[in-house]
Structures are given as C-alpha cells and as structure tokens.
C-alpha cells in the first residue's frame, strides 16, 4: 500500500493497488490524481446520494476462492436508471470490477487492449454478435451513460458528468449463460470487460453496511 498526503488538506491518502490512478480524499472530498510520488487535486466531487446498496468501501469478500477488498466506486447514470461499479483489489494483487444493478451482481475483469476485438460503437445494436475470448456474446443493451459520482480509489481518470457510450452483452441461454460482458467507449478508447453473474451470498461478504431489513 502506498500512502500520500492530500495537496488540498494534508490528510493521509492511501492507494491500495498498483493500478490506482485516482482517488477521493476521505477528509475533504477532493478528487486526486496520482502522478509518480505526488498527488494533484482536481477539486471537490459531489457526495454520492444514498442508494441503499449493502456494499461500502472496505468491505471484503471472496470470489472463486480468492479474497478481495472493495476499494472504490463509480456511480453510473443513464436516461432510465443507474448502476454501481465497485473497484476491487484481490489478495493476489489482481483487480476487478463488481457491477451492481437492480439487485444483480457480476464480477468482471478488463480484457487487455491487445486481446480486445476492434469495435465500432455505431454498429453495436441489440442482437449483434461479438466474439470475445472463448465466448460469442450478443449485445443486450446499448445506451449513452455518464458517471454521476465517484468514491475511493479507481484505476483510471474519471470525470463526473462526462458522457460516453456503454454496451452490455450476454451469452445466449445454453451457451454458458452466466457469462457477461461490458464495453465502454470513453474518449481514451474502448474498454472491454468480461465476467460472470454471481449470486450475492456466494461472495461471503464481511464489513457490509447495516441496513434496515437486511
């Protein structure tokens, strides 16, 4: 774990992963970018509204026998709803993303750009088939989205309010139907993530938020 001082308020700011690029200061709420041995402040970010998610930064869980810690969060909005993307650090040093949408959960990992298919976002419409790794996915949904807010550590520079094109994909039933994929098209180029749907209890979480009714 690397530790820095916030340039805005002087509070200690930890980075738990080698992939961490941005974080939010827990003391003053400034968005910070990691540059070698220093941090640069991009100003305050809005506090995320409570959406009754059971997860929180610092919660720990397991996936396929490997422990992980939740270290960051991106809240994404679109015209008809919202979802959470939780950045997780595995004990092995790997990282991943835990997607949370309407009570459904998926663990995904980024596909290296050298292995990702070359894609034209204008051609990605529902029903379109795309081969990624060992699966042939179908586009389930495609829409314009934007980051509503962030919290904690993330592996890329994320600017709340910036719009981008987002695509969800699934594997047809009978062909490994738990597999899922997500493709984002920010200004820096396509980002492809592949993973699987997981029932919440299978993560064996500890350190969750205390919510009425849970």
Supply database-style keywords.
eight-stranded antiparallel β-barrel; 2 domains; mainly beta; 214 residues; single chain; three-stranded antiparallel sheet; globular
Task: Walk me through what this model shows.
The protein has 214 residues and is an all-beta fold. It has no helices and 15 strands. It has two domains: 2-44, Rubrerythrin, domain 2; 60-203. The protein has strands at 2-5, 12-15, 22-24, 30-35, 38-44, 60-63, 66-78, 81-90, 95-101, 104-110, 129-132, 135-152, 163-170, 179-185, 191-197. Helix content is 0%, strand content 51%.
Topology of helices and strands:
Elements (H helix, E strand, L loop, with lengths): L1 E4 L6 E4 L6 E3 L5 E6 L2 E7 L15 E4 L2 E13 L2 E10 L4 E7 L2 E7 L18 E4 L2 E18 L10 E8 L8 E7 L5 E7 L17
Antiparallel strand pairs: 1-2, 3-4, 4-5, 6-7, 7-8, 7-12, 8-9, 9-10, 10-15, 11-12, 12-13, 13-14, 14-15
Q: What's the alpha carbon Rg, rounded to whole Å?
A: 17 Å
Q: Please, what is the average pLDDT?
A: 89
The biggest beta sheet reads: 8 strands, antiparallel, barrel
Q: Work out the oligomeric state of the chains in this entry.
A: single chain
Helix coverage percent of residues?
under 10%
Structural class: mainly beta
N-to-C CA distance:
32 Å
H/I helix tally: 0
Give a concise summary.
With 214 residues, this protein is mostly beta strands. The protein has no helices and 15 strands.
């Amino acid at each position: 774990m690397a530790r820095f001082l916030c340039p805005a308020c002087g509070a200690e700011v930890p980075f738990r992963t080698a992939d961490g690029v941005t974080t939010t200061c827990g003391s003053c709420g400034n968005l910070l970018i990691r540059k070698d041995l220093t941090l640069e402040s991009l100003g305050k970010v809005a506090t995320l509204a409570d959406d009754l998610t059971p997860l929180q930064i610092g919660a720990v869980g397991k996936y396929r026998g490997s422990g992980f810690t939740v270290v960051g969060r991106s809240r994404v909005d679109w015209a008809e709803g919202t979802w959470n993307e939780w950045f997780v650090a595995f004990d092995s040093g790997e990282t991943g993303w835990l997607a949370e949408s309407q009570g459904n959960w998926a663990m995904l990992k980024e596909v290296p750009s050298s292995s990702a298919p070359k894609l034209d976002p204008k051609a990605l419409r529902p029903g379109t088939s795309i081969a990624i790794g060992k699966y042939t996915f179908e586009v389930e949904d495609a829409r314009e989205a934007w980051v509503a807010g962030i919290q904690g550590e993330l592996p890329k520079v994320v600017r709340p309010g910036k719009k981008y094109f987002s695509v969800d994909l699934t594997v047809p039933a009978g062909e490994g139907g738990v597999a899922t994929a997500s493709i984002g098209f920010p200004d820096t180029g396509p980002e492809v993530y592949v993973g699987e749907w997981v029932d919440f209890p299978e993560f064996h979480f500890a350190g969750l938020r205390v919510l009425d009714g849970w």
